[in-house]
């Protein structure tokens, strides 16, 4: 019986650890700057409301489906899809969904590690006082010197990958679980400290108004909310599926998925309340996008009281957010190596880590030596370098397709008796989930997918 399968990798001690781990996977660099920024630029409170509705209609149903599939199979995403396709009498070709998730995970990590390396380097720059009284030209020079030097970028990329490999190599109980038990509370504490400081700037309410005041929202803004609701929960990349495979049988998937979505959204909103009062207090541009972290906020930290301490804590926060995401991105591939190649976790982590690190060198060079080397794919994108191409292919193609096929497999390929047995929830809740994941969620994901590749635009 499928319900008697056990993961050879172990399992989470309890529901809280799974929630911490999955929330850690979802909370990354994007939560710290992207959600507050896109909310403020696309209708404020109206955008937040639309986003919450999209989380409920798209994010939570797919998270429940992916977690359910993972726990049902109790293996890496590749082997889980092979086993469940056989159980349900479906084509063995469904294993491709597992492969796509695993490949997407380590491709994302290959360039994510490079950006996380920037945050690592900024911890030491901030702690050393490099931002004290810095000018705009000065911070631009610091950033340019970092990204234009391939040796520096490679060093920080290497350090971050080693940090990730060490955690994953130690296994579920001693590696992943211990890491999230420390990193997630520490991340929340650092975030709350930054919010507390922001409340002393005199611009806290201005930051709150920027985030929550209802405003007009365009059709494009609705699509952005839909897309972010999907991407923010780490769906379609195998991470939630493999984390679900470690979930104890008695744990409610429904309750856990809702709590993860609430936690992820809460962190994003807290990040906005932490960042934007500092931005407004220093007369900075709130629409700076990714430059807000590395080019704008350091100026504020350099001119505020206790700025060295606050700035250092902020970049530690960024690294913690990136670290919890990174360990979930590499775990599916490591689990597969252990299951299919007879390796222990240490060797599997080293092999996958080195392979990911090697691909990441392309992203390192994309900011300097290869910056002008671009290519185009008809009907998809044009003039993108190595880094931009990986980002586009994973975020805009692989992840939405992964989420779409997860919904299709859960609702259309699996027997109702199987999904009922695994979700083990109230009949009304099950019927709502089943309707959403069978009809509403796939249509919404298709709309988002067609929008991001430029087929439709509202």
By CATH reckoning, the class would read Mainly Alpha
Structural class computed from helices and strand pairing: mainly alpha
The ordered string of helix (H) and strand (E) elements is HHHHHHHHHHHHHHHEEHHH
Number of helices, where a helix is a run of at least 4 consecutive DSSP H or I residues:
18
Strand order, sheet with most strands: 1-2
Low-confidence stretches: none
> Beta fraction of the residues?
under 5%
Number of domains: 1
What is the first-to-last residue Cα distance? 48 Å
User: What gross morphology would you assign?
Assistant: globular
The CATH architecture can be named as Up-down Bundle
User: How much helical structure, as a percent, in the residues?
Assistant: over 70%
Descriptive tags:
Amino acid/polyamine transporter I, mainly alpha, about 450 residues
């Amino acid at each position: 019986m499928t319900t008697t399968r056990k993961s050879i990798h172990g399992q989470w001690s309890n529901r809280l650890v799974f929630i911490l781990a999955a929330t850690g996977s979802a909370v990354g660099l994007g939560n710290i700057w992207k959600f507050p920024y896109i909310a403020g630029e696309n209708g404020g409170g109206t955008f937040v409301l639309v986003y919450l509705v999209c989380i409920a209609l798209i994010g939570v149903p797919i998270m429940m489906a992916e977690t359910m599939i993972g726990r049902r199979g109790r293996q890496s995403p590749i082997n889980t899809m092979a086993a469940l396709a056989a159980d349900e009498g479906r084509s063995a070709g469904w294993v491709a969904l597992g492969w796509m998730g695993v490949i997407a995970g380590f491709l994302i990590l290959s360039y994510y590690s490079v950006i996380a390396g920037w945050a690592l380097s900024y911890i030491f720059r901030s702690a050393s006082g490099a931002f004290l009284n810095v000018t705009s030209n000065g911070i631009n020079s610091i950033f340019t010197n970092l990204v234009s030097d391939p040796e520096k970028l490679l060093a920080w990329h290497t350090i971050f990958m080693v940090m990730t490999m060490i955690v994953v190599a130690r296994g579920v109980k001693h590696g992943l679980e211990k890491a999230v038990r420390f990193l997630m509370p520490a991340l929340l504490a650092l975030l709350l400290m930054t919010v507390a400081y922001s409340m002393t700037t005199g611009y806290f309410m201005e930051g709150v108004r920027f985030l929550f005041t209802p405003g007009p929202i365009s059709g494009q803004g609705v699509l952005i909310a839909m897309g972010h609701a999907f991407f923010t929960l780490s769906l379609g990349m195998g991470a939630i599926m493999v984390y679900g495979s470690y979930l104890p049988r008695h744990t409610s998937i429904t309750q856990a998925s809702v709590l993860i979505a609430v936690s992820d959204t809460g962190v994003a909103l807290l990040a906005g309340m932490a960042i934007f009062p500092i931005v407004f207090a220093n007369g900075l541009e709130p629409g700076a996008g990714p430059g807000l972290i590395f080019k704008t906020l350091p100026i504020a930290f350099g001119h505020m009281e206790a700025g060295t301490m606050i700035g250092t804590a902020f970049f530690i926060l960024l690294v913690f957010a990136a670290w919890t995401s990174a360990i979930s991105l590499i775990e599916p591939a490591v689990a597969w190596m252990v299951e299919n190649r007879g390796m222990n976790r240490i060797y599997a982590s080293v092999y996958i880590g080195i392979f990911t690190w090697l691909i990441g060198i392309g992203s390192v060079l994309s900011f300097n030596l290869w910056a002008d080397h671009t290519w185009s794919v008809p009907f998809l994108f044009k003039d993108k370098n190595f880094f931009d191409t990986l980002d586009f292919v994973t975020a805009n193609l692989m992840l939405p397709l992964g989420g779409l096929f997860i919904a299709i497999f859960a609702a259309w390929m699996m027997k109702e008796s199987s999904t009922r047995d695994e979700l083990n929830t109230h009949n009304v809740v099950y019927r709502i989930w089943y309707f959403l994941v069978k009809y509403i969620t796939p249509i919404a994901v298709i709309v988002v997918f067609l929008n991001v590749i430029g087929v439709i635009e509202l």
